[in-house]
Amino acid sequence: MTRERLYLFDTTLRDGAQTPGVDFSVEDKIAIAGLVERLGIDYLEGGWPGANPTDTEFFAEKRTRKAHFTAFGMTKRAGRSLSNDPGLAAVLDSPADTVCLVAKSWDFHVTVALGTTLDENLAGIRESVEAIVSRGKEAMIDCEHFFDGYKANRDYAIACASAACEAGARWIVLCDTNGGTLPDEIEAIVRDVADHVPGERLGIHAHDDTGNAIANSLAAVRAGVRQVQGTLNGLGERCGNANLITLIPTLKLKAPYVHLFETGTDDEALAQITHVSRAFDELLNRAPARQAPYVGEAAFATKAGLHASAILKDPATYEHVAPETVGNRRRVLVSDQAGRSNMLAELERLGIEVQRDDPRVGQLLDEVKRREAEGWAYEAADASFDLLARRTLGKVPEFFRIESFRVLVERRYNAIGELVTVSEATVKVTVDGETLISVGEGNGPVNALDQALRKDLGRFQRYIDDTELADFKVRILNGGTGATTRVLIESRDGAGIRWSTVGVSPNIVDASFQALVDSITWKLMKAGAAPARVPGRSPEMTG
């Protein structure tokens, strides 16, 4: 059976830039374009040349190797000629292969927002498409608020799409701009439009304001569209856009789509999708969503002992796809709900060799349950569990010994009269029998401790120079002045590796310090650093 070609269009560099707190530099855009191309995306929309300095510089040259380099703009302004529209001219003059112009398709917007007539808007769509085609570029029209426009005036919305098609547009994209349309409406409307504009020239652009962007995109594909637009990790204004990181594996692995369609994403590219998703989050300096479909750390994780045992025997009955196909991995969590199967599976993953009947496995399981009853959370702190397991089995080298630490917090006026709060930490450690004292300043006590602890670890310093604190979470486990505090710390290094550690104490600073020490210890252990040299004492910690 011959499968139809389905085209993927990435709008991360434009729609994603509308996300609150996101501001791409030119260098960011170049890096993101590289990530997008690794997935075999057909079209990469780079932004709006001429609209701002960043987009203008990005379009100074072609930035893609295989994907259609696409410039975004808007159709000819009402009341102006093509030659007297500098915004359109900047888009047409760019090195883009494809030009995507947004057009009004809701009669209310035409008359109120544009202040023009319905006929003049149709003429503007036609003339703009013809101008793109005359430059030898592929033309695309985004019909803004198409579904709302269709509901208000079906005939006019379809007339806008038909005008673009007749003028030579390769793609006419139906946009659910406010994200309020539901899947059954999308499917019915697209089927109707496909009677007037061929489905192989239709696309879908869905926003996620009802949490249905993926479902709406799939509904549109079923109804006939052959281009799907979206962003990496669902970035976008308000609630975001259709998430290509979720959509691509669904199209590639799920029936009926896998049997009916092919995309530019091959199996090798699909196996990189988890890495691409996390690398994108790393570039944005934000923690990846743990429960993201397909690529999240918890996407193939199980906690209950009964399920864990069954998964190890027959993974296919509990996992909807094999995690390796999307570059992820199976995780059997260790927690107070865990059984012996969970523990053995996790020890095997960590590379800790132990016999199934080794009594220390039971001791470790009891220790985990005891600690989690006190507030520890090892399912969210894999590095701390790794260390606990190895200590129980007597296999963690001692790299340094903490002798003491102290934190001071001072609120004062600085040299220019501003009231500031400054934290200073002092940490005393012993490395190879030598005492080292370091002082660090930070914008809080934990930041100061982190700075001081990583400032000087003697010969181990080179292993941790690229280590930094990536995320910090605090939870109060019970109320009152004697409340127990749990601190979860996520660290990362220059290679993009992330690991999590946990600390528990009535004192938030002490809990934070425990997690910081675990973080550095785990990093040194994984880096293969030689243990401390202390005369008369074994370099192995046994508990």
Structural class: alpha/beta
By CATH, the architecture of the largest domain is named: Alpha-Beta Barrel
Strand content: 15-25%
Taking all Cα atoms into account, the compactness measure Rg is 28 Å
Q: How many structural units, i.e. domains?
A: 3
Description:
The protein is an alpha/beta fold. It folds into 3 domains: 4-284, Alpha-Beta Barrel (TIM Barrel); 301-374, no CATH class; 401-541, 2-Layer Sandwich (Double Stranded RNA Binding Domain), CATH 3.30.160. It is 37% helix and 21% strand. It has 20 helices and 20 strands. It has helices at residues 26-38, 53-58, 86-92, 107-113, 118-134, 146-152, 154-167, 183-193, 213-223, 244-253, 257-260, 267-270, 273-284, 305-313, 340-349, 359-374, 382-392, 445-453, 461-464, 508-526; strands at 4-5, 7-10, 43-45, 68-74, 98-104, 138-144, 171-176, 202-206, 227-230, 261-262, 301-302, 331-332, 396-397, 401-413, 419-431, 434-442, 468-476, 485-492, 498-505, 540-541. The strands form 6 sheets. Strands 2-3-4-5-6-7-8-9 form an 8-stranded parallel beta barrel, surrounded by 7 helices. It has a 3-stranded antiparallel β-sheet with strand order 14-15-16, covered by helices on one side. α14 crosses α15 (340-349). The longest helix has 19 residues, at 508-526. It is elongated. Mean pLDDT is 91; it is low at 536-543.
